[in-house]
Amino acid sequence: MASTSDIKNGLCIKYNNDIYKIIEFLHVKPGKGPAFVRTKLRSLTNGKVLDNTFSAGHKIEEVRVENHKFQFLYPEGDEFHFMNTETFEQITLNKNILDSPDLLKEGENVMVSINTETDLPLSVDMPASVILEVTYAEPGIKGNTATNATKSATVETGATVNVPLFINEGDKIKIDTTTGSYMERVKE
């Protein structure tokens, strides 16, 4: 058993007969009254996000997880196929277990958290950013760059991202996987 002082991002806990991963937390010590921890939890079974507040010193049941490096092979409907890079064992995961499945390119390496008690995959941690090629972008209109004007562009995985007007088809761009937003153009 752990307590609220052990809470950190990425910690997996059992709560309300489900397994949740902590995606955000904030220790709050008000001037009047007891301290508490405000958390944002993501269910690892259905992907729903829940806001919860634990009082200071509250006991939480921690779930032991191991992280393994997997390579994304290919999508098949709502199923995504991955291969362990050490044992070459393949697993299939549902689309809702992934944070941003539309930014996942074939051959991309991810970290998969596996429950040590049941040997079932719990979550997939994407890299912080991915580099993808733009397959379709409307042409930018000259003289329309006085403000931070953006246009939508489609990348090689099929995802749509808002990009600055100077991005054209064939450009490679870096995308933040947590927000799905454009970061920069990559020169090669």
TrEMBL record:
GO terms for molecular function: translation elongation factor activity. CDD domains: S1_EF-P_repeat_1, S1_EF-P_repeat_2. Coiled coil: none annotated. Residues 67-122 form the Translation elongation factor P/YeiP central domain. SMART domains: EFP, Elong-fact-P_C. PROSITE patterns: EFP. Pathway: Protein biosynthesis; polypeptide chain elongation. Keywords: Cytoplasm, Elongation factor, Protein biosynthesis. The keyword Protein biosynthesis applies. Pfam families: EFP (PF01132), EFP_N (PF08207), Elong-fact-P_C (PF09285). It is found in: Cytoplasm. Its main location: cytoplasm. Belongs to the elongation factor P family. Involved in peptide bond synthesis. Stimulates efficient translation and peptide-bond synthesis on native or reconstituted 70S ribosomes in vitro. Probably functions indirectly by altering the affinity of the ribosome for aminoacyl-tRNA, thus increasing their reactivity as acceptors for peptidyl transferase. This is Elongation factor P. It comes from Flavobacterium xylosi. The gene is efp.
